[in-house]
Amino acid sequence: MKPLSYRKKAVLLFGGGTALLFFLAFIHLSQSAAAMTWQTVWEALFQNGHSLQHNIVRSIYLPRIVLGLLAGAALAGAGVIFQTLTKNPLAAPSTLGVHAGAYFFVVAGAVFAPAWLPGSGFFLAFLGGSIAALLVFFMAGGHLATPVRMALAGMVLTLMFSSFTATLQIFFEYETAGLFLWGNGTLVQQDWYGIQFILPWLAMVSIVILLLTKKMDLLLLGQDQAKSLGENVRFTQTIMFFSAVGLTALVVSVAGPIAFIGIIAPHLIRLVGIQLHGLLIPGSMLYGANLLLAADIFGRFLDPSLRELPVGSVTALIGGPFLIWLILRHRKNFFGSGTKESVLPAKLSFSLPYPVILAASILLLFGSVFAALAGGSNGFEWGTTWNALLTSEHAGQRFIIIELRLGRVLSALFAGILLALSGLLFQGILRNPLADPSVIGVTAGAGVGALSILFLFSGLSISWLPVGAIVGAFIATGIVLFFSWKTQFQPSVLALIGIAISAAGGAVTQILITRSNMNAASALTWLSGSTYATGFSELLQFLIWPVFILIPTAVFLMHQLDILSLGDNTAIGLGIRVSTIRWIAIILATFSAAMAVAAVGTIGFVGLVAPHLARLLVGGEHRKVLPVSLVLGATLLVNADMIGRMILAPKEIPSGIVAAIIGAPFFLWLMSRTSKK
């Protein structure tokens, strides 16, 4: 490229970006001050008027605009650094779990140290973001991590931190009041305090990263090449890491987690041919500011009432489709080997005969069911429960067990079976240890469908809610399948497109909750998945018949999944119709998860943990994994329901949150084990 054309491109880029910035600020101010005359606004800005309207312009409208500019710039800068540091075009604070970790630590601070929070929110967010980023990095395999594995690890860790955060928000509703809107990202300000806090830190970090631009350019050549040129690579990477986490923590502490700006802005600048960091970073920060301000304008355009749409949900709604485009654009660069990868199942250092493992799993399930029936607010009543089930004594206890507990316990059991089946099928067809209904977008689509029945079609009865969940799940999966078909069903592409759909679906869900003024604790309870108030009606309508239809069908797929684990080319050579098997398995997995969501809500981790625990016990042969996985999935959800019902009685923890808390430590260990392999 000629220097002159490069210079012209830079002038147009920054000149146009600056002009756009002033234009968007003007539009934003026009939206805010629609009820005021422009003379009033002019007096507030330039003549230091002292009326109430003048003070509103200066203390509410202007800080919101300025915060949008600063937060957008910070997130875009963090995105560039993370992408360079990890050599991953999908890396950003939201995809690496940094947002989720930072948000959890801030909420925990609001609950356990509220007096300390106002002055230390940034440091809590920085600590949480750093821990999350390091966990994702090491879980994904360290320096050997692929972009696919890193993105999926980031999503799993985000699910884990989100479950912990939801637990705090449900049980400390008073302490976390007002954090629901902030937790989805908002630029709403009441004064200049947030700006005064973020500005000096942002200026200092920006100077540091601009001084490192030449060193970042060398990292593009590879670590070995940079070392041969005399660079201290480890030192540079450390400064980059803490700078990116610091920029993210600044935004989270003031405006909450705002997703996708760190992905969109850097790639927009790269599209015009800017690759070197000397222009890439300031250009990304300029257009990151534009993007966030435009998203806030768009959110207020969608809902011009006094109720605020969280800007983080708007950016996720925009970013989901952009992420799909980005995945499709880069699939040849870093997904080329995706069809050859397979899951290497972890195994214990000792082995037991398969019949022993299966029998022990079934006994564990029966024991868990009996414990769930015996457990109540007064603890476990073993003898009374046994007598009530087998004799005519204790009629009152028998009524409680049969009429109040049994339907709920059986609903948890069959929902666990369906979720485990869904996870096993998704993992088999994707050949990815992190595949799950949450990853493929099923749970997000089901959540949107169910809430749409409640709020958009409020004239329908509540009995239509499960139908909405099923329809939403299939629409989400249909979108994923369409784009996957365009890429010849590359497993890694399929999983990452599912992440994008999940992000967009989650954004729609948050917008619906915010617009409906739904109680935050109630919304979080449903979104976290709960077996509360389920019984024989849900069991008969949504759970029993799918189990007896889907499982026999899935049995015939197990041998084909064993062959698919060897790679598409090998499977085709052995006569397997790969696309047909994949279509059938995806439809079965989606329907299985949708029926479970229709009955008990959006429960995650069961479909992740149960199949892996089964592989850990019996190896990777799907015909052996299937029954053990189904039994363990049922056991996990039955125990999650029991623990959530008893541990803080009479309050209840949603079983989806308990399942996440149980499954997260196991999954963290599993990720570290498989990444080493």
What tags apply to this protein structure?
677 residues, mainly alpha, ABC transporter involved in vitamin B12 uptake, BtuC, 2 domains, two-stranded antiparallel ribbon, 29 helices, 2 strands, globular
Question: How does this model look, in words?
Answer:
The structure is a single chain. By secondary structure, this protein is mainly alpha-helical. The chain has 2 domains: 3-334, ABC transporter involved in vitamin B12 uptake, BtuC (Orthogonal Bundle), CATH 1.10.3470.10; 354-436 and 530-676, Orthogonal Bundle (ABC transporter involved in vitamin B12 uptake, BtuC), CATH 1.10.3470. The chain has helices at residues 3-32, 38-46, 52-86, 98-112, 117-139, 147-171, 179-182, 193-211, 213-219, 223-228, 233-255, 261-271, 277-302, 311-334, 354-374, 382-390, 395-430, 437-440, 442-455, 465-486, 491-515, 520-528, 536-555, 558-564, 568-573, 578-600, 606-618, 622-646, 655-676; strands spanning 375-376, 379-380. Strands 1-2 form a two-stranded antiparallel sheet. Helix 5 runs antiparallel to helix 6 (147-171), helix 12 (261-271) packs across helix 13 and helix 20 packs antiparallel against helix 26 (578-600). The longest helix is centred in the middle third of the chain and has 36 residues, at 395-430. The chain is globular and about 85 Å long. The two termini are 44 Å apart.
Number of strands: 2
Distance between the termini: 44 Å
Domain module count: 2
Specify the helix fraction band. Answer: over 70%
- Based on the structure given, which CATH architecture of the largest domain is correct? Orthogonal Bundle
| CATH topology description of the largest domain | ABC transporter involved in vitamin B12 uptake, BtuC
- Beta-strand share of residues: under 5%
Radius of gyration using CA atoms only: 26 Å
Which homologous superfamily in CATH is the superfamily of the largest domain? Answer: ABC transporter involved in vitamin B12 uptake, BtuC
Q: Give the overall form.
A: globular
The largest pleated sheet is described as: 2 strands, antiparallel
Structural class: mainly alpha
List the total number of helices.
Answer: 29
CATH class of the largest domain: Mainly Alpha
Poorly predicted segments: 336-344
